[in-house]
Amino acid sequence: MEFKTAAPLMCAGISIYGGIVKANVPKGSSIGIVGIGGLGHIGTQVAKCMGYKVAAIDVKQSALDAVASYKHSPDVLILASDHVGECQRKLSAISGVYPGLDATVLATDHPAAFELAAALTRKHGTMVLLGQPEKGITMSYATTIYKDIKLVGSLVADTAQAQELINLFSENMLHVQVKEWRLEDAEQMKQDYLAGNSEGKNVIVID
């Protein structure tokens, strides 16, 4: 594995892998990855290879198109700007007894994503919180308390899980979308990220 591929796995990769593990749902269950950025584009592939039915959820159609083109692509693509009812209709293809997803993993810090994820998580389902909004997390009681949704916090994975991820990644030849930068261009990389123009993971190459 090239260093530029391995490097993002030791932060973004183990963060999203740890979140999927924390969801603690059996194989064959449905998992939604909310936010298909640096973490999420890895997470959709990982969850698929772990035996889950996967929904990719993002506000950018380009992000959804990207993961749809991968070898291990999601089962359902959800454009976050669609009406909630339309999103739920699309999920019916992978839903079980209760309408909605068995678990959602929040790989974004956009405040609106948390309420959408709660709306798309089934009754008695689980939400794994990775995203860290600056002003905190806000969700309606109607989509959490009334549906008896379990909220689980997750930060990163442990050492053993990191090894599991590397093995899974290597065996299934998963893809990491990487943009390489020189050290002297680090400030431009930062500005692109803050402007929302970056996709996948940024990697600074130091000779």
UniProtKB/TrEMBL annotation:
Q: In the UniProt record, does the keyword NADP occur?
A: no
Against Pfam families, the record matches this protein to: ADH_zinc_N
Looking at the record, the residues that make up the Alcohol dehydrogenase-like C-terminal domain are: 38-170
Q: Name one GO cellular component term.
A: cytoplasm
| Keyword annotations | Metal-binding, Oxidoreductase, Zinc
Superkingdom assignment: Eukaryota
Cofactor(s) recorded for this entry are:
Zn(2+)
InterPro entries assigned to the protein according to its UniProt record, in alphabetical order? ADH-like_C (IPR013149), NAD(P)-bd_dom_sf (IPR036291)
Q: A single Gene Ontology molecular function, please?
A: metal ion binding
What is the protein name given in its UniProt record?
Alcohol dehydrogenase GroES-like domain protein
Q: Which organism is it from?
A: Aspergillus sclerotialis
